[in-house]
Design goal:
Blueprint (H helix, E strand, L loop, with lengths): L1 H4 L9 E4 L2 E4 L24 H9 L17 H14 L15 H44 L1 H9 L4 H37 L8 H27 L3 H6 L2
Helix pairs in contact: 4-6, 4-7, 6-7
């Protein structure tokens, strides 16, 4: 109502169009916020079912019915609905149901299972991405060590210790990883915003997830940057200065 007519405006009696079909507003429901399934309950229009079927769907049968139970126990209600539908559909004992009755608990369970599956899949993708990114960082650092061999030899010749060189290349690897982590976090924020905007999925990115992302990025830099850093730290200064 606020979006279509503005705040503090009573739209009763006004006309709106849905798929170019005129509908008259007869009332506005109180705000309910987000449902247990994550959908916005305030972004809904209620109209007579027969009108919707005839004018918008072009069909004469009902696809689904939503029932509100009077008690918290929904299973007895679902069983009673099943019995009524089996009787109306003239199903014999032993015949399979030609319809489906789902409670909110069952739908929430399916949603949770889907979320767990998606979480596992995303974790696997993240693991592969970390591995590929780590190998890329290691290759970049190995090339850097090769190209800067004379520089490393010169540093060691004027007093730099092996652990100083090791620390230098480890820091460079971590900085490179953190830079990639920043890009990845920005990309994640963009995807979350797109999902919320176009798919109407409520998304929340907790601060600890951002901290974990930076932590994994730093750990990846240390792990995959250690071998190139150790290789640089073990160079012979004399041989390094002779390197062409």
């Amino acid at each position: 109502s606020d979006t279509l007519f503005g705040p503090d405006v009573d739209p009763t009696g006004e006309m709106i169009r849905i798929r170019n079909q005129p509908f008259t507003v007869v009332g506005v429901m109180t705000s309910k916020g987000q449902s247990a399934m994550g959908s916005d309950q305030d972004d809904v229009i209620f109209a007579p079912y027969s009108t919707i079927m005839k004018k918008l769907q072009g069909q004469q049968h009902i696809n689904s019915i939503t029932v509100s139970a009077a008690t918290p126990e929904t299973k007895p209600v679902a069983d009673a609905i099943t019995e009524v539908l089996r009787t109306r559909h003239k199903l014999m004992p032993g015949d399979p149901d030609d319809f489906m009755v789902r409670t909110l608990e069952e739908m929430a369970s399916v949603r949770s299972e889907t979320a767990r599956t998606m979480g596992t899949l995303l974790a696997a993708i993240a693991g592969v991405s970390l591995l590929v990114g780590g190998i890329g960082i290691m290759n970049i650092m190995l090339v850097s060590v090769t190209e800067r061999t004379r520089e490393i030899g010169l540093r060691m010749a004027i007093g730099a210790r092996g652990k100083d060189v090791l620390l230098q290349f480890l820091v460079e690897a971590v900085v490179l990883s953190l830079f990639g982590g920043i890009i990845g976090i920005g990309f994640g924020f963009g995807l979350a915003a797109a999902a919320e905007e176009f798919l109407e999925w409520p998304t929340t990115i907790p601060p600890n997830a951002i901290g974990m992302a930076f932590g994994f990025a730093a750990a990846t830099g240390v792990f995959f940057g250690f071998y190139p850093a150790r290789k640089a730290a073990r160079l012979d200064p004399i041989e390094a200065l002779r390197f062409e």
